[in-house]
Design brief:
By secondary structure, the chain is α/β, with parallel strands linked by helices. 34% of the residues lie in helices and 15% in strands. It is built from 15 helices and 14 strands. Helix 3 packs across helix 4. The chain is globular, with a radius of gyration of 24 Å. Residues 384-436 have low confidence and may be disordered.
Length: 436
């Protein structure tokens, strides 16, 4: 990409140029430079680029420009643009970005997703709002109730398409397509996209142009990656140890399960580390408050499931920690992409237990390199006793890795407390971090 290229190099219109400059954008990213001209030409497009490289602006800016050429909007006649997203948080983020880029345009923008009241969303669809950002489930519910009109849709976007299909949204998407105009421009964007998904995407796109920035499933170049091979029962203690370092100032921790995320959060709170948790069992209000507290710095750590791997756009996340190693390279890419966004740098740390080594090796084969291994004294690589993470039962440490100075009697006392289930005793949480 030429260093002289700017957003004014694209015929987006004076009002969009102004909004982009007010948002502090200097130059287009590679995915933006490649995709924006093709979208303005009316081409269907599959855009694949590393997370954090500006894909939302890559499709939103040209759509806004075409919806409102030279700041003028045609007569309203139903929803003209629809962006589908896999999660509520990502939908809210896209809506906010669209409002930022279109702040000087006479466009009406709305989001449609679960976790909030339907009535405002119904009103927006019935009024023919110009651009809708939606999660497939709630949108399909409202369309089946005869709310809204997509018959004149001009633009359809699948954002994080691989995740939508992975989350089982394909049946809902196919149902939604019954309401959508055939004469439309369709765009598909993701950080990863398997050949199978590319083939499936062609069911919805017409002769798409494919833009790929970087290798398939290539993690962000600005992220420093490292691995701690650690016994599963030591993960919580290792996490607390790492969080003693001041440079871990804004940390996103990923858990495989919702219950595991809650337990990790309790461990950190008992260690005096301000923490919020975010997963699908939390209400939308709870999820929003957790994310806002994390963005504002009111909490230092956000513990989340993979619901946060897409759609969290928080400036200044210094570290991502994979407490549970992700099952697929694609999930790894999305998780670590929450740090090192745009031109910033970040760190991604992964805890890997014995049964997770296969997933780590698969990732390294895909990357074509070995991720740096690190160790801390007292935290052994996996191969000692088994056990489980914060989401499962704790196993006794093997003799060579037990902290010094603990007698057999004290261990028996601890076992008794675990069995009794008394206050302050959880068999899922290390005793070291219970309140004194």
């Amino acid at each position: 990409m030429s260093s002289s290229l700017s957003f004014r190099s694209f015929p987006l219109g004076t009002k969009i140029w102004q909004a982009v400059e007010e948002a502090g954008y200097a130059r287009p990213t590679p995915i933006q430079a490649a995709a924006i001209p093709l979208i303005l030409q009316g081409r269907d497009l599959i855009g694949i680029a590393q997370t954090g490289t500006g894909k939302t602006a890559a499709f939103t800016l040209p759509i806004l420009a075409k919806l409102c050429p030279e700041g003028n909007i045609p007569a309203r006649s139903g929803t003209r643009a629809l962006i589908l997203s896999p999660t509520r948080e990502l939908a809210a983020q896209i809506e906010q970005n669209a409002r930022t880029y279109g702040k000087h345009l006479p466009l009406r923008i709305a989001s449609v997703h679960g976790g909030v009241r339907e009535r405002p969303q119904v009103a927006a669809l019935r009024s023919g709002v110009d651009l809708v950002v939606a999660c497939p489930g709630r949108l399909l519910d409202l369309l089946e109730q005869q709310h809204g009109n997509l018959a004149r849709l001009e633009f359809l976007v699948f954002d994080e398409a691989d995740r939508m299909l992975d989350m089982g949204f394909l049946p809902s998407i196919r149902q939604i397509m019954r309401w959508v105009s055939r004469k439309r421009q369709t765009l598909l964007f993701s950080a990863t996209c398997s050949p199978e998904i590319e083939t499936l995407a062609r069911d919805f796109l017409s002769a798409p142009q494919i833009v790929r920035i970087g290798r398939r499933a290539d993690p962000a170049q600005a992220v420093v990656q490292s691995v701690y091979e650690v016994a599963r029962e030591q993960k919580a203690e290792l996490l607390c140890r790492l969080l003693q370092a001041e440079e871990l100032r804004s940390v996103l921790v990923f858990s495989r399960t919702k219950h595991g995320a809650d337990r990790i959060g309790r461990v950190l709170e008992r260690a005096g580390i301000p923490t919020a948790t975010m997963h699908a069992d939390r209400s939308q209000g709870q999820r929003t408050r957790a994310l806002e507290a994390f963005k504002a710095g009111a909490v230092r750590v956000l513990v989340a499931t993979d619901i946060a791997a897409r759609g969290i756009d928080v400036d200044g996340i210094s570290h991502v920690i994979n407490y549970d190693f992700p099952a697929t390279p694609e999930d790894y890419v999305h998780r670590i992409g929450r740090t090192g966004r745009a031109e910033a740098t970040g760190d991604a740390i992964s805890f890997v237990a014995r049964e997770e080594l296969g997933a780590l090796r698969a990732l390294e084969r895909l990357l074509g390199r070995t991720i740096e291994r690190k160790q801390i004294a007292g935290f052994a690589p996996e191969g000692c006793s088994g056990g489980s993470s914060a989401g499962g039962q704790q196993s006794p440490a093997s003799p060579e890795h037990r902290p010094a100075g603990r007698s057999r009697a004290s261990r028996a006392d601890r076992r008794g407390r675990y069995r009794s289930g008394g206050r302050g005793s959880s068999r899922h949480e290390p005793r070291s971090f219970r309140p004194a």
